[in-house]
Amino acid sequence: MRGFFVSMALACVAHAESPNFVFVLVDDMAWSGTSAGMIEGDRESKSDFYQTPNIEKLAGQGMRFSSAYSPAALCSPSRAAILTGKTPAQLHMTTPGGGRVQAWQQLAAPQHVMDLPESETTIAELLKKKGYATAHLGKWHLGRTSPGDHGFDVHDGSTENDSGGTAENPKDIFGITERAIEFMKENRNKPFYLQLSHFAVHTPFQSLEKSAEKFSKVRKGDRHDDVEMAAMTWDLDASIGTLLAGIDELGLAENTYVVFMSDNGGAATPRSSQNLPLNGGKGTFYEGGIRVPLIIRGPGIPA
Asked: Does residue 11 or residue 223 have the better pLDDT?
């Protein structure tokens, strides 16, 4: 996935009438973390508890990539790779924190970059040269540099894991979507690249009270049974429904690619995993750590 999205976007620009791109990047969502199912007809490729009707709708309108892999098993290196098309190793960004050097180590630790270098070229910078408006909303987590230093006209700054969410706007789920729709309204007459980098479904869990109440009454699954995670996933899905409706209302759907993906797999422990039936989770190179949901809808993509 490291160079796939950059290459796809540039290819689309070259062969189409300046399409728009709306990229929804979710944080720590498992491959089986939606009710859409990454393999149609395979019950284990979707959750047996979480409900995501809007993501199901998106999957029904576009293409599911059943064997999609993130560039890394952790968020920062994965995000940097997606934006630049380079591997985390090329960027020297392989963890969200610095490498740890111990006195007993016999080998020198490799150089570790904490901030995405301004010398790197991002997809936003490439598309700006083609006349695109650009926005990055939500989680950045690529060091002290800002999205504004990397080609984004509109952005939320150098945000990390803290969403500043409230009871009415958990994980800033709805705020990110509102700002995204406002950006599309302001730029509907020119091509744009819009990235919504959600803080959900990363811990700590946050959701609307009514969502938590809903899932407290739903029968739990054999693989997924966390009410708070289900509620947060439901709220995220609701925001995606609002986003898709906004694209339709603005008359942008026919010329807009919508990409939905996770930065890495869900969290996991030996006794509890969001990633079943996959082994392992975030931070590991087992399937559960790097295999992620990916759906793309847009011009020329058959349902």
From this structure: 223
Q: Write the pLDDT tens digit of every residue in 129-143.
A: 999 999 999 999 999
- Of 12, 75, 150, 224, the catalytic one is 75
CB-based contacts of 210-213 (< 8 A; 24+ apart in sequence)? 211/235
- Residue of 275, 266, 262 lying closest to 203 (CA atoms): 266
Among candidate residues 12, 136, 141, 202, the one labeled active-site is: 141
Asked if residue 80 lies in contact with residue 142, where contact means CB atoms within 8 angstroms, the answer is yes
DSSP secondary-structure letter at 291? B
Distance CA(68)–CA(170), nearest Å, equals 28
Dist CA 34 CA 52 (whole Å):
6
Quickly count helices (H) and strands (E) in the chain: 9, 7
Burial class (CB in 10 A: 0-12, 13-18, 19+), 131: exposed
Taking the alpha carbons at both ends of the chain, their separation in whole angstroms is 21
pTM for the full model? 0.93
Active site residue 12: no
Eight-state DSSP code of residue 296: E
- Per-residue pLDDT at 100 exceeds 80: no
Of 69, 6, 10, 64, the C-alpha closest to 35 is 64
- Please count the residues of the chain: 303
Residues 6+ apart with CB under 8 A from 81: 1, 2, 71, 72, 87, 88, 91
Give, for 260, the enclosing helix (H) or strand (E). Answer: strand 256-262
Nearest CA among 263, 266, 256, 264 for reference residue 296: 256
